[in-house]
Amino acid sequence: MPAYKAPLRDMKFLLNEVFDYPKHYASLASGENATPDIVDAILTECGKFCEEVVGPLNQIGDEEGCKFEDGEVTTPKGFKEAYNQFVMGGWQGLSAPEEFGGQGLPASMGLLKQEMMGTANWSFSMYPGLSLGAMNTIYLHGNDEQKQTYLVPLTEGRWGGTMCLTEPQCGTDLGQVKTKAEPQADGSYKITGTKIFISSGEHDLTENIVHIVLARLPDAPKGTRGISLFIVPKFLPDGNGGMGERNGVSCGSLEKKMGIKASATCVMNFDDATGFLIGPENQGLECMFTFMNTARIGTSIQGVGAAELSYQGALEYAKDRRSMRALSGKKEPEQIADSLIHHADVRRMLLTQKAIAEGGRAMMYYAARLADHMVEGHEQGDTAKAEAYDDKLGFLTPILKGFLTEMGFEAANHGAQVFGGHGYIREHGMEQIIRDTKIAVLYEGTTGIQALDLLGRKVLLMTQGGAVREFTLKVANFARKQLTNKRMRPFALELLKLTAQWNVLTLRLMLTARKDRDAISAAAYDFLMYSGYVTMAYMWARQAAVATSNLASGEGGESTEFYNAKLATAEFYYERLLPRAQSHATSMLSPTSNLMQLDVEHMAFHG
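Structure tokens predicted for 3-methylmercaptopropionyl-CoA dehydrogenase:
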């Protein structure tokens, strides 16, 4: 298993030089304590914790997995001790409000922490990660009593959280939810039903688990308009900050999975469990989207993390493993053969991993700035500001989740390929990264669902193409400023062509959809992938612009070698990976008939 090393130099380059986070934090009310020195110290300590405590448990957790016996779940050896260190370090409350015991730092600080933890050990990071979603939901939609009751122990990390959406008969189509909520005389509700695929549904890391559950009231309208949201704790609060009696919620079984085996994925049974309404009746789905957006952004980190960890392992292996001679001549004549890294095809795979990891990280940090403004709008009661930034982030969320997880999975596969036969062997850890990462393209909405959300909902239905126009205008304005720079001109010209094409493609799909209802579903995946490639191209151009400027001026916080590496990787991305966007452009405009004309009965012939 690759020994994780926190990529602090790249993280700081993005934070300090590309996106100017010091200025960004200075503009936020919650950024008062996020000074460069404090941020640097937090990143260093978090990196150390992930390298020394969390990372070494990654392979152990995969081999041992979680154990289920008599309704109780036991996490792998070392997980509970590591989680206790996590709690003692105050990491759970890093970005939580100070009034509930948090440190009150900007939301993006939590994302930086989550990236390092998730890359080092995705299974471990899911336990506190699910809690963050519950915390956000209660903070935004809970009443004062609910906030006081649940947010303090959740912030401390003494209690954990989950989200309970999926049921045996429905996944994405939440209109089919059958879990019932019966009103009680004391204002509570009795929740009855079964939920599946519940991450962190039961475990031994925290003393209590707070479930956020979708259910239907007796007189609720059919479909998604009749779903409400409830808080259902494992142990009922005793009113004094502690726990009372056990609630009617239990784990029925653990799912047997191909990956993230150290993360408890549970079937949860609610048998007349006491629950408490959160948010308005029949508006649970709207409230849950707070949780879903959090989860989807969090899941996209897995794509970046998979690319980073796989790259770290593959790079070291390619330096050490020797096989044949480079086609351009001996590179290490004193050795029996040249290292793999001297072969062009191996370089192709390594640079693909590097471009995905660093380009994806830039996409995440760009979005994290928007999230900071959105959260501040909520905290200040500025609904207009919160909604404006929520719209900007909402456009990027499906791109981040769909594109980055697909690319992260590709990068993980390249890592195993660099190892050759050893990539198939468990002790090297590369096959685990593949297994762990595959779920990222599935949960919190498959790539197809993200694509429909992007094209069908965010672009066409909600904004009639306005979301694309707004984002591409920002990209084009950046590109125009780079045209006078000889080194940046090729990047800028390509970006300008792509922004124009993106708008044309959007318009053509909008017009096609008026005549062909299947056109959006048929084009959605290619539209999402195209959008992802162009967005990553923008991020690589921004990194290249900073590198070019700092090389010319002799300034910046990094070495000449670092900046030259950035430029070389940007050129690789534009010349080797970005051309894929054009195949997606061609595919999204192809006729729907090539998908729908074949009769269902003729999909296969057996005889």
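The longest strand covers residues 265-277.
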